[in-house]
Structures are given as structure tokens and as C-alpha cells.
Amino acid sequence: MLNAFFQARPRLRAALIGLAVCSPCFVAAAQAWAGEVAAPAQAGAPITSDRLSVEVIGSGPDVLMIPGFGSSREVWRAEAERLKTTHRVHLVQYAGFAGEPWSHGDGPFVDPAVEALAAYVRSAGLNRPAVIGHSMGGLSALLLAQRHPELIGKVMAVDNLPFFSALFGPQVTVESARPFAAQAAASMRDTPEPALRAAQTQGAVGLARDPATRIAMVNWTMASDRQALGAAIRDVMTTDARPGLAAMTTPVTVLYAADADGGAPAAMADATWGREYATLPGVKLIRVDGSRHFIMADQPARFAELTDAFLAE
């Protein structure tokens, strides 16, 4: 998709493209984003900051669900509809993705988004919610727990590493990843639309077994703001959450995918995820077989089972 470097590494290319890829009930109280005390989140008028918006459905213990790079909150729709009978589900969508407006040009993406998540948890009056994040959303969840452990009850990270660019190899550092991150960002901004759609369509095959999800992820990416995509991929490729793992006290469950039929081989996935999360105390690593990057779509029954177990802990 991006250049010969990525083309020579199919698994890395697939993972990178994976990062690239409606109920009327919404959060109430728009004054929350100004830092004012807000009533507990409930169905009501939409609330949107310049970094994210949140939709709320259901009632019960709070669960915050964060989608990945280029994705809509709709990636969680089936699971959220299932959970809403027992939980109050907060469906996040980042600004700039899947049609959400973006006003920050080429400025930073990940760090301000994490702080916006923290502001939302505070202003909505959530009591240490469970946080579930996919891909870039999983990175956001880890950073949120590292920087604001008092706000978060537990985290489930879905098919993301604490340092995305470790997919290049264990020797890669933030500094050595910067040139490739800059190339990736430029490609996201500058690739002509037909070529980008073709590349997204091709890459989607490696990211999901489910045909409907492949179509959806391409559509979400193509509806995203190009500058937002570029800023986000640059930040993801140069954000390393590993130094903060050892000091984390928030319980973390990590789901990761393996697929003998065109996805990541189990042994490779075990080695990579085990290595990258090795310093996180008490981490629970769970491999989901027969799945590619979008575990929730490829293995929905297994994902539901694991989610219920996570929420019950």
C-alpha cells in the first residue's frame, strides 16, 4: 500500500492497513467538554468535542468501547447491542474518522485523543469504567490507564501491541520508526482516491475474514479526513507504551488473533504478543484462533464469551 518496504512484508502491510481502516441515544450535557461537572451520561442530545464523540446505549455498569484507526463506532455495534441489556455502553468515535469532522490539520492525534477520553470519563461521572479498545483504540486504552489509572477500572486491548512499529522487529525504536511513519503519513494524505481505495480493498482481505467487515472498513477509511489519517498513523507508529507497562496497576486483558488460513500463524502471534507485553504485571494474553485483525467480526461468539468473562472479573 505504501511503498516497497511494506510490500516486502505482507504481515506488516496488513497490520498497517488494519490501522487504516445507528441508535439515537447519545451522551447528554455539552458543558462537560469545558471541564464542568456533568450529570451521569444518559440518553439525550449528542455531545461532540473536537477530538471525539460518544454515543451511549443501555444501562448498568459502564463500558467504554474505542474503535481503531479509520474505523467507525459501528465496528462495535453488534457487541454493544448485546451488552446494552446489562451494561451502559459508551461508543467512542474519533474525530476525523469515518465521516467525523477534523479541525487539527497535521497536528498531534493520539495524545490529545487520550486526554479527551480522560475528560469524558470525568465529565460524564463514570465510576472507573471498563475500557475495550481495538487496534489504535487498544493503544489509547493502555495510555489512558497509564496516565490516569484512577479513572479506569480495567482494560481489554483487542489485537494491538503497545508499540505498533515492533511489527518491524524487536530492534525497532521510536527514532528508527520515524522515517517510515513520515512515509506512511504522506501516503495517507497524498495517495489518489482510486489508488487508496484499491489498496484498502486489497488489504482488507488480510484483516478480516468477514466479507461485510471488509467492505465496511474500506468505506470508513475512504470517508475519513486524509490529514487525520496521516496524523494518526504517524503518531501510532511513533508512540511506545512499553516503558509504562511495568508500573501499571490496572488489570489488562489482551486478545490477539491467529489464523492458519491466511492470517498470522499461531506461533508467530504467540511470540510477538508475549514478547511485547512481557513487562506488564498480571497481563492476561488470550489468542483467538480463526481470526484476523477484526476479532469481534471474525469470531463474534468467542469474542462475546471473552468479553463477558472480562466484564465479570
What does this structure look like?
This protein has 313 residues and is an alpha/beta fold. It has a single domain (4-312), classed as 3-Layer(aba) Sandwich (Rossmann fold), CATH 3.40.50.1820. Helix content is 41%, strand content 14%. The chain is built from twelve helices and eight strands. It has an eight-stranded mixed beta sheet with strand order 1-2-4-3-5-6-7-8, sandwiched between helices. A hairpin with a 3-residue loop joins strand 1 and strand 2. It starts with a helix and ends with a helix.
Task: Please describe the biggest sheet, giving its number of strands, its sense, and whether it closes into a barrel.
Answer: 8 strands, mixed
Order of helices and strands: HHEEEHEHEHEHHHHEHEHH
Based on CA inertia axes, which overall geometry fits?
globular
Strand order in the sheet with the most strands? 1-2-4-3-5-6-7-8
Mean pLDDT: 87
Fraction of residues in H or I helices: 40-55%
Total helices: the number is: 12
N-to-C CA distance: 40 Å
Number of structurally distinct domains: 1
Which segments are poorly predicted (pLDDT under 50) over 5 or more consecutive residues? 1-40
Strand content: 5-15%
Structural class, from helix and strand content?
alpha/beta
Report the CATH topology name: Rossmann fold
Instruction: Provide the CATH architecture.
Output: 3-Layer(aba) Sandwich
The first-level CATH class is given as Alpha Beta
Number of strands: 8
Specify the CATH homologous superfamily: Alpha/Beta hydrolase fold, catalytic domain
Tell me the radius of gyration. 18 Å
